[in-house]
Amino acid sequence: MLKKAYLILFISAIANTAALAQQSLDVNFNGFGFLDNREYKAFVPRSRTYSGTRTMLDFGLNLDSLNHFIVGANALHEFGAQPFFGRVDPVAYYKYTGTKWNFYAGEFPRQGLLDNYPRALLNDTLRYYRPNVEGLLARYQTENFTETGWIDWVSRQTATRREQFLFGFSGIYKPNAYGPFYLSHYFFLMHDAGAEISVPNDHINDNGAGEIKLGLDFSHKTVLDSLTFEAGGLFSLERERGVDGFKTPAGFVFTAFASYHKFALYEEFYHGQGSTVVYGDSYYSKPTYNRIDIIYTPFLFDRIKGQFVASFHFSPGNLNDNQEVFRISYDLGRKVLKRFSQD
Q1: Cα separation, 229 vs 179, whole angstroms
Q2: What is the torsional sign of CA 79, 83, 85, 86?
Q3: Measuring CA to CA, which residue among 268, 327, 325 is closest to residue 299?
Q4: Using CB atoms within 10 A of its CB, is residue 145 exposed (0-12), middle (13-18) or buried (19+)?
Q5: What angle do CA 299, 305, 309 make, to 5 degrees?
Q6: Residue 261: left (phi > 0), alpha (psi -120 to 50), or beta?
Q7: How many CA atoms lie less than 13 Å away from 82 in the CB half-sphere?
Q8: Is the pLDDT of residue 204 over 60?
Q9: With contact defined as beta carbons under 8 Å apart, do 338 and 44 qualify?
Q10: CA distance 168 to 302
Q11: What is the pLDDT of residues 19-52, one digit of tens each?
């Protein structure tokens, strides 16, 4: 049903294209460097240093102001690794950009579309090692309301590989577009099925999570540049078909963010039942978890951003886990290479 809905939307977008504008060919170059050191006594296998650079180059063919085709590559180099590019992810997708509807189909960047998901659901290392969504995404947005639905294939089924895909939706509603109050929600579920050749005692697994939060945004309404508070519930869905039914651990989550010029402070607190979310942050498997980020942005230019983050993680029995991160991102923007006249 979900696949059919996206297909109908895709055909509708093509069929209802507005009058053609001048066609053009453009190019974009962007990327980021990262050094992410994690001292996790609570999760020794994840106590490691992630470091490297991501660079992406792509070319876009703009048929008009609504319809675009983009082709390129996103390459990862981890410092000290051989060969130099350990992984190159293809970028190839169609994009429809209407007034209210946006639609993506193919292999397209996660950044700017799904990177706002809470870490409890989709952890932040996806930006390092899986920067693209491989599938479909649709977004509807008005002044008061935004909703995004998506599906992302992780593994295609073969004789030896499992079939795995994620699907989800997220959105935000503001009763008053200029008021502080808003309601947000995030959800995803991973479907994990077996390979074509069945294995004894192997079962289909479903694993996912969701958050529903009430928020207050006082950004630019105080002496601070940003000031937001969110509180709500976190739940997960965990099932091994044929073995048990859905397990639904849940708990309370609270976040606060404040920034002033180059400095920012982020606070996140969770209390409840521990959840095992395959793509989520492992700390939420604990019944209580508190995270504090101290953020410093030494330079922020038009297309370049450099940021230091010192994170402190507190969970039962582990009160001195910490993390030090430096990231620099850059985006040269889309530059027109050639314009084509209409026939």
Answers
A1: 14
A2: negative
A3: 327
A4: middle
A5: 80
A6: left
A7: 0
A8: yes
A9: no
A10: 32
A11: 445 799 999 999 999 999 999 999 988 899 999 9
